[in-house]
Amino acid sequence: AQRVTQPEKLLSVFKGAPVELKCNYSYSGSPELFWYVQYSRQRLQLLLRHISRESIKGFTADLNKGETSFHLKKPFAQEEDSAMYYCALSGTSGSRLTFGEGTQLTVNP
Amino acid sequence: GAVVSQHPSWVICKSGTSVKIECRSLDFQATTMFWYRQFPKQSLMLMATSNEGSKATYEQGVEKDKFLINHASLTLSTLTVTSAHPEDSSFYICSAGTGNYEQYFGPGTRLTVT
């Protein structure tokens, strides 16, 4: 069975501070990991995926297979980063996504 | 590109009636479409996966006779909530996949059953 855990439902930081949203997963094979973001009153959209190893809007995430983690990080948070962030896992291409519970990030001025 | 629309965005219906929600991929062909349900302040729960021209695969605990899914073409999937009851009130979200891991999400449909 595949499972994604985001231990923090709420996370609040000040503008300019570093931010880390935690994600742990369990999966028996080699998973694809994703971070999705949902801004207020907008649809869910892909932020980044581990296979592309890119930085989007200053966010990065590294897959740590030993710790089965895929934490999302940004060195300097901005107010516009305030949103709900979901970590998700897919087992094979085109297959179902399993979402974590989500972390509501609030960046205070 | 890669836009997914849902219609309606909001619907209110009376208990016992059926409601159909459409999901369309506007500028691409979706090999697979997914239907999720989201309760307030909770995560997305996958209800079913559908491939064009074949029967949907439902997740455990989802009643296939209550949540009818039709995937008539590579750009359209519909979810029909039959004999709706107040506990079916929720936010229903579809997504469309192109077979390369990525899914594109619709804006969601808020269903309220009175």
3D architecture notes:
The complex is a heterodimer of chains A (109) and B (114). Chain A has strands at residues 3-5, 10-14, 19-21, 24-26, 32-38, 45-49, 60-61, 72-74, 83-90, 97-99, 103-108. Chain A has no helices and 11 strands. Chain A is 0% helix and 44% strand. In chain A, a hairpin with a 6-residue loop joins strand 5 and strand 6. Chain A has 109 residues and is mostly beta strands. Chain B has strands at 4-7, 10-13, 19-25, 32-38, 44-51, 57-58, 67-73, 76-81, 90-97, 103-105, 109-113. In chain B, the strands form 2 sheets. In chain B, strands 2, 4, 5, 6, 9, 10 and 11 form a 7-stranded mixed beta sheet that branches. The N and C termini of chain B lie far apart (37 Å). The A-B interface holds A 32, 34, 36, 42-46, 49, 51, 86, 90, 93-102 and B 31-32, 34, 42-46, 49, 93, 95, 97-103, 105-108.
Topology, please?
The complex is a heterodimer of chains A (109) and B (114).
Chain A lengths: L2 E3 L4 E5 L4 E3 L2 E3 L5 E7 L6 E5 L10 E2 L10 E3 L8 E8 L6 E3 L3 E6 L1
Parallel strand pairs in A: 2-11
Antiparallel strand pairs in A: 1-4, 3-8, 5-6, 5-9, 7-8, 9-10, 9-11
Chain B lengths: L3 E4 L2 E4 L5 E7 L6 E7 L5 E8 L5 E2 L8 E7 L2 E6 L8 E8 L5 E3 L3 E5 L1
Parallel strand pairs in B: 2-11
Antiparallel strand pairs in B: 1-3, 3-8, 4-5, 4-9, 5-6, 7-8, 9-10, 9-11
Tell me briefly what this model is:
Chain A is mainly β and 109 residues long.
List keywords for this structure.
heterodimer; A: 109 residues; 6-stranded mixed beta sheet; 3-stranded antiparallel beta sheet; 11 strands; B: 114 residues; mainly beta; 7-stranded mixed beta sheet; 4-stranded antiparallel beta sheet
Greatest interface and its participating residue counts: A-B, 22 and 22 residues
Number of distinct beta strands of chain B? 11
CA radius of gyration of chain A is: 13 Å
- Beta strands of chain A, count: 11
Distance between the termini of chain A: 41 Å
N-to-C order of helices and strands of chain B: EEEEEEEEEEE
Fraction of residues in H or I helices of chain B: under 10%
